[in-house]
Amino acid sequence: MREATPETYEIYFVLDVSGSMTPFLTKLRNEIVSFTESIPERDAQGRRTRVDYYVVAFVNDVKWFPEESPRLTSAIGVQDALDRAIEAGRGDLNLTQRTYNAEPAENLLDAITSVTASAPTADARLMLIATDAPFAESPTILSSNIAVRTSFTRVHQALADADFRVHAFTPELLDGVTREYRGTPALTDLPGSSKTSLRALVEGEVDIATRLSLIAEEASCN
Fold first, then answer.
1. Residue 194, SS3 per DSSP
2. Which end of the chain has less Cβ packing within 10 Å, N or C?
3. CA–CA separation, 166 vs 114, rounded Å?
């Protein structure tokens, strides 16, 4: 449990925007309001909470949306950023080089590292990860000569050090995200984290609005 109700939140949507993710990303985009409205407007002392959102997209490479002003403060802003990210990844294109994403593994680790390297300072730090692919780790070179710079153990430690709660939307079993990877616990084993099946969400077995609302509500105390 947190020692005090957060006054400030930083929420990062770290999203695989390759073509296979479009059905989920569209559902997420359409339910963002459910998420933002479930975050408490005031903390336990009656102070108005401040919530900053960021959309961090990845394929082989990583790009924050919108590039010109990545800090977002409203559901409309997040929806617009998601629209841009989905469009950028359409056709399985990379995001900065506009070349074809040629292998099944994606660059999740560098996307996460770009977040932790930005030195978040909010009382509550949440990361919502969505991907249906395994990740590559350093020293792998992905298509278009994009080098992966980060290892899983470094990413896991950086998230733990920054007290991130990781909420993953992935296949039921995904190495490193929902189950241990080479002796290191899964990202969703970090305190306050959770995992949700992409298949169950896309097929309607789990309601995405309800799931997002629960994550938002628990961010203040769990």
1. strand
2. N
3. 15
